Amino acid sequence: LVHFGDLIDVDVVGTTEFDWRGRLSSEGTLEGFDSYGDPIVGLCRSEASIAADVKRPLSKFLRDPVVSVRVIDRSGRQTVVLDGAVRTSHRFQLNRPAKLRELIVLAGGIRDDASGEIQIFRPANLNCEAPRSNSTGGESNPLAVLNITIKDLIAGDPAANPVIRSGDIVNVRRADVVYVIGGVVNPRQVSSRSTTSLSRAIAASGGLTKQADRKAITIFRREGNETKRLEFDFDRINSGESADPVLVAFDIVEVGVSGSER
Q1: Which CB contacts under 8 angstroms, 24+ apart, belong to 233-241?
Q2: Cβ neighbour number for residue 162 with a 10 Å cutoff
């Protein structure tokens, strides 16, 4: 199918007067090829169907014209953008069908700070897919969004490895972060996913130091214009007496240090 950016050649056999070469206009028609009748729509149509439409007006001037339509250059199509938690962000010029997994491999793979989710933003009219309808009405949506989990992609789920289209924007989402400070071996920011618990964040920071006050662990959590202070006893969490709290984005975990003022 013909896309925006394609270079199209119209060859009328036996004459050069009616030959044409060019690209689609912003309306999706053969730009400039309207001297012999109505504009010819080319967007998302096959070469053969375009040739049939070109043939009709030329029949007024030629007897049984033979028309050949070919796409001779596809390099003007919209690029695919792959960004986010991949080793190297890329722009791909697709000249053949390619699936999501292949492009991620070409970008060096997924980084450790990925959240586990991939979003594909797919503008209408750039890939010749039928526009989707809004859930609340019948109007077409100019931007489709595909949500995929890395877990399903790795598991080999075909639905999680779609064919990528020209103009797609693929975002391998980065995980949000939490901050672990105080009595841990390696105070740092830790990638936060939907299941990152307090004990896991502390383990990712090297664990507690000998001077850590295990009964004085505080989570500072921003909620609106206020900061909540949540207190936890690490020994009670380890023994199962208290639940291991799940952290949310931008929490600050402060592990107390014995003998220091808090």
Answers
A1: 234/199, 234/202, 234/208, 237/198, 237/199, 238/199
A2: 16
Residue 192 CB neighbour total at 10 angstroms: 22
Say which amino acid occupies 227. Answer: T
Rounded to whole angstroms, the Cα distance separating 256 from 19 reads 80
Does this model's pTM top 0.70?
no
Cβ-proximal residues to 25 (8 Å cutoff; 6+ apart), any chain: 31, 39
Considering the chain, what percentage of its residues have pLDDT values greater than 70?
A: 92
Give the Cα separation of 91 and 103 in Å (integer).
10
Cα 24 from Cα 43, distance rounded (Å): 7
pLDDT in tens, 63-110: 889 999 999 998 888 899 999 999 999 999 887 889 999 999 999 999
CA distance 205 to 247: 14
Host H or E run for residue 231: strand 226-232
Cα(143)–Cα(163) distance, integer angstroms? 17
- How does 82-107 read in b/e, with b if 16+ C-beta sit within 10 Å? bebbbeeebebebeeeeebeebbeeb
Contact in structure between 40 and 53 (CB atoms under 8 Å): yes
